[in-house]
């Protein structure tokens, strides 16, 4: 729970990256405007600040690289102590005066709102209305390009932490394979993973009520269901786990599956091969400059060509601080995805590649890998699961 | 981390309360509109839903009491299984069609936005813009009165959980008194509390980087500072701790202090008496119907009458799921508090009563108690600290 001493270098590294990103846009300033962040707050906050903020607070990065924090007087000392900010301006009664002084009339102000991306959409509507009132004669526009690039393009330190999270996830999958057997319920597997994650001082990369997702056989709830105490692992099932953990602030998101029995039947083998062929097709399509939807289309065509139905989600999403980390999506051009699948893939983004097929009478074969985008393609961060082990 | 089985009764109890609150307004529907809630999401969500939601989701309560959830297809099964919703409508490609079908043209739609209250301000600006596009010809207005009453007015089950959280906090203060002594640093005390809270399976009610706040002597950072490894407990110090924990989803927020030495000096005793006189004045002013600022003014006048400066915060805030739980504030009519201090206190709200004075050469004397508003006054939930114990 405590702020690590190496957090300081991470926030400073990300603030420097932010200044460069602002300078590459037509924004005069990028402003993160928050209050009472203890309950979550703006998703961009942990990238640029240790700890929390209580009263209305403005974290401002100017296009010339200057960084100014305007915060309630009780929050000022730790911010000043961090050394990350050129100026920390405390206030007692109202932020209006220091804020209007900091943002000149006519300025083009990038704010954290976005219709298509929740990770660039940390500004609440009430806070937006407050800004409208306090900052007339300024242009309040979306800072989506800055926020998404800041979040998506991982620094070496961020990649190092993600590799560690993946390593811990692999270890948990080995523990799961040792624990799962005939007669164990989905819920028992879930409880076992929760005990291990707690013991190892880690947390979950999505809502822990549905992490891990555990499915055994054809009657299980696929997706973000709650693991069942009634459904038990039985011969002939496909046993499937979707697990993500967070370590040192960075996350994993991986799916693995097993056949319950002594020999993998032909239909299960065929399903597994089709899923992996589609993941390979996605990886081959993934490189900087590609719009996200083209990568999804490569996988979608491959699974259909193998005679299976289309999956009802995106073939890949970015991973970072959370399992679903926003930004460009490797997904179809469906309305609910907004612009996310239209944007271009960039170097140093980390994506999942994931899909599955449901086999009648068997269950769900789902595989999810993690990759980093390189200058001309991608590298696997997870070790691919290409064959289906047996559980008995 | 797991959803408790008694959560179901809590969400159902709160949804029934919500329906009654909507019927008492001029709203046709109250709608909570969220996506990707794993990173926090709308603060009202845990009151009405177990677990999380991934795609754009609308949780709708009509004024006739009907409750409808429109969610991505992977989230539908657990919602249907909860039994809390009259109808769960799953979608795959876009929420637009089921949403426009659910909200008739001309309807007055209460949404979770508020300029003055973060706990009623869970709708992001990007999500508001989406709704504007999808729901033309509807009136989109603030649902602040519904959300604040739902959150503020505690049910018996909520009060029961808060009493437990307070009991655990008292136990931690006893542990702190046993651990703190000459030469221990603020940071060591903080670390000790973190170890105990982890061991007891609880969490912190505000950002754990600054919970507990630990201050010893005149050179400590008051407020939301990070406890110092350099500042140690020394003779003549006032030693002060502000601590809040969360247990079963409900929180405490309490301040206690000690004098470091063998006998409490006169100036420390006088400061302590003044602080408690002001807290008593606040408690005597607190009852249903009072605007929050009048309670603050009672305490503020009392501390000034005792010859100490005004405190730079509100004398009380609501506590519930979090330490700072929004709604009516027992605070001065300063701009940054918006309308919160103008609203009337209601029965079954839980407040802190808190303030302090800084003594030159000694440190900060701060006391914070917790009270529940009754039909004609308030009852103490915490056992008041009226005298100053010695630490040595």
Report on this structure.
- Two copies of one chain form a homodimer.
- Chain A has helices at 7-23, 45-48, 73-82, 96-102, 125-134, 144-152, 156-179, 186-199, 266-285, 292-305, and strands spanning 29-34, 57-62, 67-72, 87-91, 108-111, 139-142, 203-204, 213-216, 238-243, 245-247, 250-251, 254-260, 350-359, 363-373, 378-380, 390-391.
- The first copy, chain A, has two domains: 7-152, 3-Layer(aba) Sandwich (Creatine Amidinohydrolase, Chain A, domain 1); 156-391, Creatinase/methionine aminopeptidase superfamily (Creatine Amidinohydrolase, Alpha-Beta Complex).
- With 392 residues, chain A is α/β, with parallel strands linked by helices.
- Chain A is built from ten helices and 16 strands.
- The longest helix of chain A has 24 residues, at 156-179.
- In chain A, strand 14 (363-373) and strand 15 form a beta hairpin.
- In chain A, helix 1 packs across helix 6 (144-152).
- The first copy, chain A, is elongated and about 70 Å long.
- Helix content of chain A is 33%, strand content 21%.
- The interface between A and B is large, with 76 and 75 residues.
Q: What topology does this entry show?
A:
The structure is a homodimer of 392-residue chains.
Chain A: H1 7-23, E1 29-34, H2 45-48, E2 57-62, E3 67-72, H3 73-82, E4 87-91, H4 96-102, E5 108-111, H5 125-134, E6 139-142, H6 144-152, H7 156-179, H8 186-199, E7 203-204, E8 213-216, E9 238-243, E10 245-247, E11 250-251, E12 254-260, H9 266-285, H10 292-305, E13 350-359, E14 363-373, E15 378-380, E16 390-391
Helix pairs in contact in A: 1-6, 7-8, 9-10
